[in-house]
Amino acid sequence: MTRKIKRVGLRIGKIQKGFSDNHSFLMGIIVFLLFYSVACFKQEPVTNQNEGSEEMQFSELQTSVESDAPLQVSQKPEDVVLASKIDKLIETSRFANARWGIFVVSLKDGRILTARDARKPFIPASVLKILTSAVALDKLGADFRWQTKLFTNGKIEDSVVKGDLILYGQGAPDFDESGVEELVQKLKAKGVKKITGDIIGDESYFRGDKLGDGWVWNEIQWYYGAEASALTINANQVGIHLQGSKVTSTSEFVEIKAEVQRSSSNEIDSIGVKRELGENSIYVWGAGGNLDVRLAVQNPALWAAKILDKKLRQSGIEVQGKVKSVDWKSKEKLDPENATEIASIQSRPLGEIVHKMNKYSVNLYAELILRTLGKKFGSETLERNPKMRKVRGDDRAGAAVIEKWLEEKGIKLQENESIKDGSGLSRLNLVTPETIARVLIAATKIKNSDVFAKSLPIAGIDGTLSARLTNFAGKINAKTGSISFVNSLAGYIRKRDETIVFVIFCNNASAESVTLIDKIVSELASH
């Protein structure tokens, strides 16, 4: 069904300004140790002790409004006044020259309380995770789990694996060293004492790029730009710290080269951190006394294989071969149909993964979910570009799955809207405020809609909203978004007599524009 907004007095079109979810830190420039950010790459905060106690009840999100329903702008005097107040807030602010996109609709009766450039495309930043998580919960289900397996291309005889031992990832976002230890214990339980072949980390389950289309090159050294490997390990990141005058890492997988001088007590720390593209060599330089950052590793599948090799040897299992990794382009990649499975473990359920992903805006989780959607359902979707039909990767296929889901809900993307990744880090993502609002309406009717709603940060309570909108603690569930010159916020506001869906995009403005977004949301919540 074609989406319609009947214009009944309020104008919807305006020129605005904007902004969304992951600060760009230029690689190799001086870092002033402000490595805590918002939304897409925010450090997980200490949450309120009452976390979860103010969660929005699912009954408050039940609505007769359909995601493809024609909607009309309200002519209620109080709604007209509200729209005028929001326009004035923007136009009298220091961010008046930014691009602003707003869409606010009531779940009670479907009236549009206010709209501003609601059908123009904006960079959404991590608000895009609303799409990724809603589609994943609806199609995969909250109980879906990923598996990580051990295979051999040989056979097991007399307590000896006669062949390679292959650690085969299938996209588990939470696989870590404890998972490796569990697999080793299962191997020991089978009586294995020796492996004659190599230890191989195999990430070939996903086809295509491990980085998102449209990601900025100087983002990918930071943890929020980690590779979406099918064999992810320890969130594909390491910590870099300064201890006295020595720079250390949480893993030996990366090589540290440092020239850091101690600064005097009255000097501001000025320390640079750079990981070369395609390498795990990290250079740290400058002067200061404090450093605590997280960097993405290159080739996490090899890292996983090295950890497995180490755990095997520590457990008393002899390894005679080397350690290496393979991907979907490798001739030596695993064919599960012609290999012997030895052991496997499962991830936490998707519902828990989505909960953490949205609460703390974990890009890696979103990218792995996107590729899982492409792997599982990509064959059901057509590729728009005929030249890409035989060669597209699982990330592109996952975006096509999301677009098809939107169409099934009556939310057809405009020609100038595009989905390029699952996390919102890409600057090629373009969606309208109305599209996201209709997704939020559709999300109230999907399978596991309560899981989706509870995964969104709660204002003044938890996640990336723990310190925001505290005057409305427990009344707002919303997804934050922030990359350089982009800020966004979208979700649900629980009011005394109704619940409203709101979407606010701000592009082409500094990070401080989040203060104006919160003022707008406060007006909506007080209205």
What is the count of β-strands?
23
The radius of gyration computed from the alpha-carbon positions, rounded to a whole number of angstroms, is 24 Å
Structural class: alpha/beta
Q: What separation lies between the terminal Cα atoms?
A: 31 Å
Question: Strand-residue fraction?
Answer: 15-25%
Q: What is the number of helical segments per DSSP (H or I, 4+ residues)?
A: 10
Mean pLDDT: 89
Strand order of the largest sheet: 1-3-5-4-23-22-21
Q: Kindly state the percentage of residues in helix.
A: 10-25%
Q: Could you list the spans in which at least 5 consecutive residues all have pLDDT below 50?
A: 1-53
Write down the overall geometry: globular
Tell me about the largest β-sheet.
Answer: 7 strands, mixed
Explain this structure.
By secondary structure, the chain is α/β, with parallel strands linked by helices. It is about 25% helix and about 25% strand. The chain is built from ten helices and 23 strands. It has helices at about 75-90, 130-140, 175-190, 300-315, 350-360, 365-375, 395-410, 435-440, 450-455, 515-525; strands at about 5, 30, 70-75, 100-105, 110-115, 145-150, 155, 160, 165-170, 195, 200, 235-245, 245-250, 255-260, 270-275, 280-285, 290-295, 320, 325, 340-345, 475-485, 485-495, 500-505. The strands form five sheets. It has a seven-stranded mixed beta sheet, with helices on both faces. The longest helix has 15 residues, at about 75-90. The two termini are about 30 Å apart. Residues about 1-55 have low confidence and may be disordered.
